[in-house]
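#lab-general

N.A. 3:47 PM
ok so I finally got the sequence cleaned up, no stray characters, all 64 residues accounted for. can someone with queue access submit it? mine expired

B.Y. 3:52 PM
send it over

N.A. 3:53 PM
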Amino acid sequence: MLRPLRREKRPGRDLAMYILSRQGIYTHKEIGSAFGVGYTSVTGALLRADEYLRKEGVSKKNRG
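B.Y. 4:20 PM
back already:
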């Protein structure tokens, strides 16, 4: 889960990053360091996680 793979779908990792980010106590740099990716990769993961949640029908109201 920690090893970055380009162009691989990893919804579990992306959602974990999303949750950490939404808590508001971790920076993208800290999250990226925990997952072994750069801080700019965290932004992409958050966008993908938001898309996963949207496709699953989870409303923004329920996401916080």
